[in-house]
Amino acid sequence: MKSSSDQRVLVVDLDGTLIKTDSLVESALDALHRNFGVFWQIPGWLVSGKAALKQELAARASLDFGKLPYNQHVLGVIHQARDEGRLVVLASACDQSIALGVAAYLKLFDDVIASDGVINISGRNKRDELLRRYGKLGFDYIGNSRDDLAIWDVANQAILVDVPESTARKARLNGNVLLELVSSSSSIRSFLKALRPHQWAKNTLILVPLFAAHAFSFSSLFSALVAMLCFCMMASGTYLVNDLLDIQDDRQHDSKRHRPFAAATLSPLTGCWSALFLVISSLATAYLTLPHMFLIVLLVYLMLTLAYSLLLKSIMAMDVIALTVLYTLRIIAGALALSLEPTFWILTFSLFVFLSLALVKRFAELNDARQKGKTEKSAGRGYYPSDLEIISQMGSASGYMSILFFALYIQDQMTAALYSEPRALWLVCPILMYWITRLWLITHRGEMHDDPVVFAIKDKVSLFTLAMVGVIFLIAL
Questions:
Q1: Which of 59, 169, 180, 358 would be a feasible disulfide site paired with 160, CB 3.0-4.6 Å?
Q2: Confidence check: pLDDT of 6 > 70
Q3: Does the structure show a pLDDT above 70 at 4?
Q4: Helix (H), strand (E) at residue 139
């Protein structure tokens, strides 16, 4: 079929062009999220060819075509072409099941060309297929990558979408570039957002054993700070992994859909490489500078975090227990970095207070869902909005239990030996009672919009409460 010169076919690429992401990477991540055993099958599929790999992954993933991050500028070009009566074709290297799904959702394409499990419709293969169907200069092509240079060479007009400058320069040499579309989002800002630096405040828990044991010296402070650095790198690396695996679920959430990977302001492939770099850097720094027991705890933290991202977060109760243990591991790691023995009462206090905070987070999510009239299970979680009451009871009880264990810590003879006025520490108990009560009341009122730890960092009352606790400890010294 040949198209007349005034009715040239508009051919549109999918990955990185029509959608601001890579369907192959997203399919792989979603398939791994659903069944990590897929990881061991990937090399075998790849031996059969890239097209076969795409087909196998697409069959095991479940992409929501209605929630994909579509490029509105490209959609505008497509709508204009349809208004002009032109044929519009989706031509993609992705598996045909994904391409057909996108076409069925948008209802904008007259035909679909895609990989079929045998032939990978990319680069020269795509060029040859388009030449066979429409002839040289018989179509305009919208693409985004170096692989598209071969297609732009034989197209009548080229439209470039977020193309790297080096590739754009080569494309312009043909003299047929009609339009260059560039997204306005900042990849650097998105990358920093994905690292969640505001969450690094949680790693100050590593300093708890330093202050609790009064082990103040330059070497101990240096070790504690290096330990914090290791946990910051590790935490950011695992946050990237968590967000990569959660892309499909996050797109169903009112606020999480704005996260960099879900909103496609950051490439998932960039996220994968960055996560690997951060995790390796964290482990290498710990191995070279800190006691090996610290490294073991760091590895346990990594394994538990991955287990949480892949499985535990979707299991009722196991998710909040895993979060509680992850917090407490920071305190254990701080002690081991300084070659100290963790205090039993502090660890017990930590378990209960952070269980309370984890349940605050779940309550806030479910309360928001209930207020919007939802009754079904939360996406990627093991809870229903009807679980609110029991979560509230467990969370508040756990918070008050933590105060009991703090009181037992004060009574401990080893604690008393560290302070000249240990009885002054009893003043911390009513302050903790006030803070936990206020936290749960705010959550019940639907005013808890952040992670509770992040809320505490931003909340002036919480910061003042922390300052009061610090003053009391100084008085007790």
A1: 180
A2: no
A3: no
A4: strand 139-143
End-to-end CA distance of the chain: 88
Between the alpha carbon of residue 308 and those of residues 61, 194, 289, 300, 418, the distances in Å are 20, 18, 28, 12, 38
124-135 residue pLDDT tens: 999 999 999 999
Residue 79 to residues 66, 102, 109, 343, Cα–Cα distance (Å): 18, 15, 10, 66
Of 308, 287, 288, nearest to 298 by C-alpha is 287
Q: Which residues of 172-182 are buried (b: 16+ CB within 10 A; e: fewer)?
A: eeeebbeeebe
State which amino acid sits at residue 156.
Answer: N
Q: Give the Cα separation of 245 and 311 in Å (integer).
A: 11
Q: What is the pLDDT of residue 8?
A: 87
Residue at 463: amino acid letter: L
If one compares 183 and 83, the residue with the highest pLDDT of the two is: 83
DSSP states of 227-266: HHHHHHHHHHHHHHHHHHHTHHHHTTSTTGGGSTTTTTSS
Query: Cβ atoms within 10 A of the Cβ of 35, count?
Result: 11
User: Please, what's the largest Cα pairwise distance for the chain?
Assistant: 93
pLDDT at 364 over 60: yes
Both tokens of 256, joined, read: 């999480």
**In the predicted model, is pLDDT for residue 296 greater than 80?**
yes
Q: Count Cβ atoms below 10 Å from residue 131 Cβ, excluding itself.
A: 16
Say what the pTM is.
0.85
3-state helix vs strand vs coil in the chain, percent to 5: 65, 5, 25
Conformation bin of residue 196: beta by default, left when phi > 0, alpha when psi is -120 to 50:
left
Mean pLDDT, residues 48-54 taken together: 95
Average pLDDT, integer, range 396-414: 91
pLDDT band at 3 (very low <50, low <70, confident <90, very high): very low
- Domains of the chain, residue spans: 5-181, 187-342
User: CATH topology of 5-181 equal to that of 187-342?
Assistant: no
Provide mean pLDDT across the span 352-360: 94
CA dihedral 149, 151, 156, 161 (to 10 degrees): -60
DSSP-derived secondary structure for 266-283: S-HHHHHHHHHHHHHHHH
Distance between CA atoms of residues 328 and 227, nearest Å: 15
Amino acid of residue 267: S
Answer CATH for 5-181 from 1.10.260.40, 3.10.20.320, 3.40.50.1000, 3.40.50.2300: 3.40.50.1000
Interval 78-106 mean pLDDT = 96
